[in-house]
Amino acid sequence: MPTPERTSRDAIVDAGRDLLETQGLEGLRGLTMQAVADRVGVRAPSLYKRVRNRRELVALIADATVRELGARLDAAAAGEPDPRRALAALARAARSFARERPVAFGLVFTPGADLDLDPESLARASAAVIRIAAELAGDDHALDAARTVTAWLNGFVGMELSGAFRLGGDVDRAFEFGIASLTGALTLRRREESGAPLAISVSEH
Amino acid sequence: MPTPERTSRDAIVDAGRDLLETQGLEGLRGLTMQAVADRVGVRAPSLYKRVRNRRELVALIADATVRELGARLDAAAAGEPDPRRALAALARAARSFARERPVAFGLVFTPGADLDLDPESLARASAAVIRIAAELAGDDHALDAARTVTAWLNGFVGMELSGAFRLGGDVDRAFEFGIASLTGALTLRRREESGAPLAISVSEH
DNA sequence: ACCTGAACACCGTTCAAGT
DNA sequence: ACCTGAACACCGTTCAAGT
Fold first, then answer.
1. Whether A87 and B202 lie within 8 Å, measured CB to CB
2. What are the distances in angstroms from CA A76 to CA A62, A91, A136?
3. Is the pLDDT of residue B14 over 80?
4. How far is CA B41 from the centre of its chain?
5. How far is the CA of B44 from the C1' of D12 (A)?
6. Residue B49 Cβ under 7 A from any strand D atom
7. How far is CA A1 from CA A4, A50, A179, in A?
8. Which of A68, A74, A83, B187 has its CA 20 to 30 A from that of B97?
9. Does the distance separating the beta carbons of B111 and A158 come in below 8 Å?
10. Does A74 touch chain B (CB under 8 A)?
């Protein structure tokens, strides 16, 4: 006689996302299988019917986060036809998202995390940056430009979440300074290309 | 009758650094108190005479890593009088260090890690970037410029360690592209200031 | 004064037994 | 077919007892 399903994979992931954000990944409260089970109303062993193990649960939470981030970035960039304004809007949207879900954002961008995220989710999350980078820097430099922007953006937001900006000053202003600097640098790349070279390239080794 | 000391705080931290790099922070092998104790030749409870708890041990490992990074950055930048070349050398040194100690580097730059690193170690590690940023962008923009460079550099290296550059292309080239772009952008800031404005600033908001 | 075995609480995970 | 209590291995940490 089959017993009825008392929870679902989605409910488990949602509970996990919530717990991650409120209790952290590891701490003494932390994202434990026990805590997730309590939230969804089953005993811990039942979770293993829906999820291979805790590692997979964490990966699913990370994937959901990447998808949501991608949707936000798309929406922010779509509203701005001018690529410079679109880049600024996208960057601000990423920063807002990170402030809403600091722990999940941190998880996704943790260097050694070794979640293997769904390539499709990742592609979706980076599509807008790549498109804008191509518009700003030209097709030849699109990938390099996108990597420069993404690195700066992830780095800035990650440092802000870590409290790494300890020297005072206005962090909002530093963020806008970064946007303006990158926009300027990438735009110049395009100008260089179109025949008006400026002596800005640093000698490489 | 006092028993002789069979280990030291330094030996514990060194063993911890080694284990962290070879076994990872958490995994099944992982940085466990048991594994550290085995390495230094005592039983796990004895570690608590030298270190408050595992959390403190991890923080000490992170601090040692930051100090070593700082020394490397200083050395790399000191060899180059031209600030543009100095910035490039510093960036490459940071990337090399991250490749030598990927796990420790990742730990230090993990967004939610909540190690509270020694402010002195951090100041030492960021001094060279700030000095170079001031030379490139002028004193008024030094802090913003340093934050832009540091964010890009940490972001790039972190993404590289995560395997986040999945779209092919030449990652080395993207790194050099980033160095050149940032150097150009910050240098332009200075030119703008000195009375030769270029229409590169993005409209803010 | 430092070291240790024993013990505790906690956690991820498995599994046989229930329905 | 899903759920559960019981159990296992493992981990961080404490502590009384040894030297």
1. yes
2. 21, 9, 17
3. yes
4. 31
5. 10
6. no
7. 10, 20, 61
8. B187
9. yes
10. no
Is 70 exceeded by the pLDDT of residue B200? no
C1' (D9) to CA (B28) span, angstroms: 12
Q: Is B103 in the A-facing interface, judged by CB distances under 8 Å?
A: yes
Q: pLDDT tens digits for B70-121?
A: 999 999 999 899 999 999 999 999 999 999 999 999 999 998 888 989 999 9
Strand C-proximal protein residues, Cβ less than 7 Å: A 1-3, 28, 30-34, 44-45, 48, 53-55; B 1-7, 42-43, 45-46, 49-50
Alpha-carbon dihedral angle through residues A114, A115, A118, A122, given to the nearest 10 degrees: -70
* Closest residue by C-alpha to C1' distance, nucleotide D14: B45
The amino acid at A115: L
What sign results for the dihedral spanned by CA atoms B85, B86, B91, B93? positive
B192 — pLDDT class (breaks 50, 70, 90): low
What is the per-residue pLDDT across A122-181, written as a single tens digit (0 to 9) for each? Answer: 999 999 999 999 999 999 999 999 999 999 999 999 999 999 999 999 999 999 999 999
Percent of chain B as helix, strand, coil, to the nearest 5 = 70, 0, 30
